[in-house]
Write a structure and sequence with these properties.
The chain has 371 residues and is an alpha+beta fold. The chain contains 13 helices and twelve strands. The strands form three sheets. The protein has a five-stranded mixed sheet with strand order 1-4-3-2-5. Strands 6-7-8-10-9 form a five-stranded antiparallel sheet. Strands 11-12 form a two-stranded antiparallel sheet.
Length: 371
Amino acid sequence: MHEIKRGYVEKCLKMPYAQRVGYFKVGEEKIYAAIEENGDMYFNKSQQELVQKYKNELLLKNFVDLPRAVVADSVFYIGETAIECSVLNDGRRVIKDTSLFAALDRSRKGEYRQEGFPPIIGANNIATLFMELYPDQIATISPIEVARFNGSTGMYYDANAIPLICDLYMEAEYRNQIVPSQKHVLAKAKILLRSLAKVGITALIDEATNYQDVRGKDELQILLSQFIAEELRPYTKEFDREYFKEIFRLYDYEYDPTSSRRPRFFAAFTKKYVYDMLPPHVWEKLDEINPLIYNEETGRKRRKYRIHQYLSEEKGIPFLRSHLKGLIKVMKLSEDHNDFKQKFQQAFAEELSRIEKMKQEYQMTIEDVDV
């Protein structure tokens, strides 16, 4: 049985391979944590004393999951109004709570709040209209705590709260229910709705955050072999945390579970021990259709998409998953990178021999054609 381990990092909510992120609710305390697939838990170093104090109460039944942002916060504009936004792992587009109040020219402090309603509903006439028109949309106008992309937390609203709140003020005006203190909010609501009528809020957020690139929905039609997809596959995580953790260990590098940054030679390692195990010339084709592109700002080359997004569901992805499973076992049995090289040659001797034979047969075919 796996013994659950506890570790401490600077920002546990930033851990890219955590299966769950959130906090343990112990009395009035929130103890933030990331839980990995095997049950291991990571906490913030700043809360280490709390973890030790309440270690017997850190039970899964007390764990509250937080949605996490998959892109960094960005700003888009509706008219002259700047709105901070992001996208969550469940697909929701969200806006920062401060942005929502600013967009409506409202202050969060000092305003009267309606009992039973989120703070964005601050007047009785608006609350009454809400219950009449949108009684099942309370979640849309309720603030939610989010694990931000930078590893902190923040309060956000569903982006659809903007048109919903604006509609309530417009309806209040139509029914002659707007009071003098609400006229400035009504004016803002009209500006926002006119702007949103021109372009949807989802499109605005996707453009601001470049989320369309994260989704990787390019419709590239390419005629490839059975190992290569005919079109770009949506991104999925194929190389799990364990793979990279073992490379760090083999080369005696310090592993930071909160970071997705890798030394440059990791790419060469993956090419040699993963992609070069594909049939001959598959890698060359992958490299051709998804080349390294030089970035003048960073001074480095990188590919626009993940290599495995071009592997086919028929044979490419099944090969990758099966090979990685065996490869990680060999990595775990190795003491360092030199020991790994020897064990790799032994463990994959048949595969290496078969690939070499295929290369020789292919070369003979080319020579025959030349003759």
